[in-house]
UniProtKB/TrEMBL annotation:
Cofactor entry: Zn(2+)
Keyword Lyase applies: yes
Class II aldolase/adducin N-terminal domain residues: 9-195
Organism name: Cytobacillus purgationiresistens
Function description: Catalyzes the dehydration of methylthioribulose-1-phosphate (MTRu-1-P) into 2,3-diketo-5-methylthiopentyl-1-phosphate (DK-MTP-1-P).
Enzyme class: lyase
Cofactor binding description: Binds 1 zinc ion per subunit.
SMART domains, sorted: Aldolase_II (SM01007)
Gene from which this protein is expressed: mtnB
Protein name per Swiss-Prot or TrEMBL: Methylthioribulose-1-phosphate dehydratase
Xref: Pfam families: Aldolase_II
Length: 204
């Protein structure tokens, strides 16, 4: 199997798993996977990401421009994926909108971040110390995608990480598809946990 087909199938499998969690409401969300140093696969814009078709992804270059003749449009948010691959050695970037990540992004917007400590799941981010703190930045949601991508890029400081976009969604990236998916699942667990806890305590 060619590298292209291998990456396509890996990304399609991740898309199916995230779809099974219902994380692509209203055609939201976009995913990408690096194929080589010059190109990456990204979801086509506006598609129902719960469906698996031969038109789910297209190959783009480092500027997010289609690298082959196609009628498909790359995700409207491709520049965020470009920012990830342009600044790191990451191999996969995942973006989803969920109720929990939107609620958390709004509740903690004024702080510009949300932190988690003494929660087992932060180990997904390599935080194994007793008192380690996981910080997830929260950035404003600009309609201007180049502006959003520039703001997002400031928080790309390692080959894996996560950034919340206020009232929009989360973008995570990792060295592999498996790592990116692990981080996304850990974030969503932590957000759902926090929302549930706040509800129980009467905080919201
Ligand atoms: C209807 S969701 C609005 C756009 C968005 O935020 C998103 O994640 C999906 O855009 P895409 O162009 O990647 O389909
Ligand atoms: Zn989005």
């Amino acid at each position: 199997m060619s590298l292209f087909n291998k990456k396509w199938n890996e990304l399609a499998d991740i898309k199916d798993e995230l779809a099974a969690r219902d994380w692509f409401m209203g055609t939201s969300g976009n995913l990408s996977m690096k194929v080589n140093e010059q190109t990456f696969l990204v979801t086509a814009s506006g598609k129902d990401k719960r469906k698996r078709t031969s038109e789910d992804f297209l190959l783009v270059d480092h500027k997010g421009v289609a690298a082959e003749e196609t009628a498909l449009k790359p995700s409207a948010e491709t520049l965020l994926h470009c920012a990830v691959y342009g600044s790191t050695s990451a191999g996969c970037s995942l973006h989803v909108h969920t109720i929990a990540n939107n609620v958390i992004s709004e509740l903690y917007a004024a702080d510009g971040q949300i932190q988690f400590q003494h929660q087992e799941l932060i180990k997904a981010f390599g935080m194994w110390g007793e008192d380690d703190i996981l910080t997830i930045p929260i950035i404003p949601n600009y309609a201007d995608i180049p502006k959003l991508a520039a703001s997002f890029k400031e928080y790309i400081i390692a080959d894996y990480g996560a950034v919340l976009i206020r009232n929009h969604g989360i973008t995570v990236w990792g060295r592999t598809g498996l790592e990116a998916k692990k981080l996304l699942e850990a974030c969503e667990f932590l957000f759902q946990y926090k929302v549930t806890l706040l509800k129980i305590k009467g905080g919201i």
